[in-house]
Amino acid sequence: QNLVKIFANRPKPAVDGINITFYEGQITAFLGHNGAGKTTTMSILTGLFPPTSGTVLVGGLDIQTHMDSIRHRLGMCPQHNILFNHLTVAEHILFYSQLKGRSREEAEQELETMLEDMGLTHKRNEEAQNLSGGMQRKLSVAIAFVGEAKVVVLDEPTSGVDPYSRRSIWDLLLKYRPGRTIILSTHHMDEADILGDRVAIISQGKLFCSGSPVFLKNSFGSGFYLTLVRKMRTTKMGRATVSMSVVCLI
Ligand SMILES: Nc1ncnc2c1ncn2[C@@H]1O[C@H](COP(=O)(O)OP(=O)(O)OP(=O)(O)O)[C@@H](O)[C@H]1O
Ligand SMILES: [Mg+2]
User: Where's the ABC transporter domain (predicted)?
Assistant: First the structure.
């Protein structure tokens, strides 16, 4: 509600009067240029620092007065991984799950599901410092969901992740969407289009527009999607087809 953040050393607000509602059971994708104010907004949402003015209500509770209660159901994946070098993948999930109040047994059950869903089963005993960048990212996303987090804030969860792993993160988000309010920032327009029930575009700290991808395309879009399907010659392996999509903008 009227969210404003002015950093002490900068005259221009990083967040400049944003009003927006995020809905349960939906993924809202935050799109915006570098420095648009995505991380600042998400940091305020998760209580990392307070707003200069305005506030955020999470399930009716105000972040300025009820942050401790809100944290119980909040999960966050920061833009830059914050992992413990010498804890393994499994230890991270167990640690955060128990930190959120789950028993050891519940945490162990959650661990198995998470490892399976993230495709990290073979890395369960690997220390975080030995994981590739993409795997560290996957672990950070998994941590955001542990402990039955109901409001999950993901700051560029798929940055630096290969296309196959990106797909597995998408699958995880879609699987975990029911009953949760998921907010993710991204620079990938295809990602926002595919995952976002709603897309919010911010520019220079202001909410530029928000709505479902269909609504936004109908309101502001001009152009066509042209899908070309080319038949390949029959090979010993059978017939293969290649499909590619080209976006033509008028
Ligand atoms: N701690 C800080 N102190 C001063 N200015 C800051 C601070 N954090 C962010 N800013 C400024 O606030 C503005 C918004 O930054 P923010 O990190 O929210 O952008 P972003 O949309 O997340 O960008 P990116 O896509 O590059 O991650 C930028 O102009 C940035 O320089
Ligand atoms: Mg950012």
Answer: 1-229
Question: Ligand 1 pocket: which residues have CB below 6 Å?
Answer: 7, 9-10, 14, 32, 34-40, 79
User: Ligand 2 mean position to 5 CA, how many Å?
Assistant: 14
Q: Which atom of ligand 1 is nearest to the CA of 156?
A: 27
DSSP per-residue codes, the chain: --EEE--TT-SS-SEEEE-----TTEEEEEE--TTSSHHHHHHHHTTSS--SB---EETTEETTT-HHHHHTTEEEE-SS----TTSBHHHHHHHHHHHTT--HHHHHHHHHHHHHHHT-GGGTTSBGGGS-HHHHHHHHHHHHHTTT-SEEEEESTTTT--HHHHHHHHHHHHHH-TT-EEEEEES-HHHHHHH-SEEEEEETTEEEEEE-HHHHHHHH---EEEEEEEEEEEETTEEEEEEEEEEE--
Nearest CA to ligand 1 atom 19: 35
pLDDT of residue 197 exceeding 80, the answer is yes
Q: pLDDT tens digits for 65-105? A: 999 999 988 999 999 999 999 999 999 999 999 999 999 99
Whether this prediction's pTM lies above 0.85 is answered by yes
Quick one: pLDDT at residue 250? 43
Nearest CA to ligand 1 atom 5: 7
Q: Among the atoms of ligand 1, which is closest to the Cα of residue 36?
A: 21
pLDDT-based confidence at residue 240 (cuts at 50, 70, 90)? low
**Nearest listed ligand to the Cα of residue 202:** 1
The Å distance, Cα 3 to ligand 2 centre, comes to 17
